[in-house]
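Please decode residue identities from the backbone states below.
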């Protein structure tokens, strides 16, 4: 389907189905550390990146620049079981974590444009499903939010993570709903 002159995918991810790599080598940055000095993502972790859109590809490239990570990329737009949130899709996601002792799932999926229903499905229902699937799986879920959850990122007032949530428009509201479900799962004991 098209929206104006742009093609809008019919499933929740805006990614293309092929993997795109930037030419040349990536600069290797020092590893980010937790407040206790531990690496933020320790060596040998299996990292599952969900989504191959603009952000998912950047996360994938950065993780692969560190040889200590085993990276698996799943693109729900290319997987009917994941896109449909079926029991088989849930099992595929859990199985992608392998036997790693501290696996991480990074949710880079989302939708910037579409109908209100498409935005709700991609930005709110998808992360809710992820939290339900990963409950009790000893997996750390990293959910990528948006500055739009805090207001208008193009507005005159700077937005930070300390800014109270004040989403505007369908995109910001649905992204905040997804983040809220992840935060609620964390309050309930999820990592």
């Amino acid at each position: 389907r098209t929206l104006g002159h742009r093609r809008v995918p019919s499933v929740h991810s805006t990614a293309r189905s092929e993997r795109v790599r930037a030419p040349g080598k990536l600069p290797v940055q020092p590893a980010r550390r937790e407040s206790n000095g531990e690496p933020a993502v320790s060596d040998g972790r299996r990292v599952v990146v969900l989504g191959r859109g603009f952000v998912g590809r950047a996360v994938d490239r950065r993780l692969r620049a560190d040889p200590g990570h085993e990276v698996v990329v799943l693109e729900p737009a290319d997987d009917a079981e994941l896109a449909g949130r079926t029991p088989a899709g849930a099992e595929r996601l859990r199985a992608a974590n392998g036997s790693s002792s501290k696996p991480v799932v990074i949710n880079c999926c989302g939708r910037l444009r579409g109908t209100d229903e498409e935005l709700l499905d991609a930005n709110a229902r998808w992360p809710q499903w992820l939290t339900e699937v990963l409950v009790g799986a000893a997996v750390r879920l990293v959910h990528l939010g948006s500055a739009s959850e805090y207001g208008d990122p193009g507005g005159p007032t700077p937005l930070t993570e300390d800014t109270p949530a004040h989403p505007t428009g369908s995109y910001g509201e649905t992204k905040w709903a997804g983040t809220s479900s992840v935060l609620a799962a964390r309050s309930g004991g999820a990592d």
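Observation: Residues 1-34 have pLDDT under 50 and may be disordered.
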